[in-house]
Amino acid sequence: MGLPVKFSETAVDQLKVLSSEKRAIVVQDIEKMAENGIFGVKSVKLVESGFDSETYRLKVKEEGLDHRVFFRLAEGTEIIVDSIIHRDQAYQD
């Protein structure tokens, strides 16, 4: 049994602009990561570490997708997806 996943409003809005096929792939990859544990997935990386939280990135690169899913662990009990962004936009300041 993996960790439950919650999506921020921003992440939900970003999912809505994807086609239903691409949306299904992104959600499936997130669920697979949650089930297997974030540290058992090669495409997960710690991208920011702060005083009270850490942000991780999941790469979703398949079927015409090249997106990054940014998420946090809430006290180790659930995954909170903050944003789902195309790679070209993910690393802009």
Could you characterize what this model shows?
- The chain is of the alpha+beta class and 93 residues long.
- 31% of the residues lie in helices and 35% in strands.
- The chain has one domain (5-90): RelE-like (YaeB-like fold, 2-Layer Sandwich), CATH 3.30.2310.
- β2 (44-49) and β3 form a beta hairpin.
- The radius of gyration is 12 Å and the shape is globular.
- The chain starts with a strand and ends with a helix.
- The model has no long low-confidence stretch (mean pLDDT 88).
What's the quick description here?
With 93 residues, the protein is of the alpha+beta class. The chain contains three helices and five strands, in the order βααββββα. It has helices at 9-16, 20-36, 87-90, and strands spanning 5-7, 44-49, 54-60, 67-74, 78-86.
Helix content: 25-40%
User: Order of strands in the sheet with the most strands?
Assistant: 1-5-4-3-2
Q: Which strand-content bin applies to the residues?
A: 35-45%
Helix vs. strand class: alpha+beta
Count of structural domains: 1
Note the total helix count: 3
How many β-strand runs?
5
- Overall geometry: globular
Question: Keyphrases for this structure?
Answer:
93 residues; alpha+beta; YaeB-like fold; 5-stranded mixed beta sheet; 5 strands; globular
Give the helix/strand layout:
Elements (H helix, E strand, L loop, with lengths): L4 E3 L1 H8 L3 H17 L7 E6 L4 E7 L6 E8 L3 E9 H4 L3
Parallel strand pairs: 1-5
Antiparallel strand pairs: 2-3, 3-4, 4-5
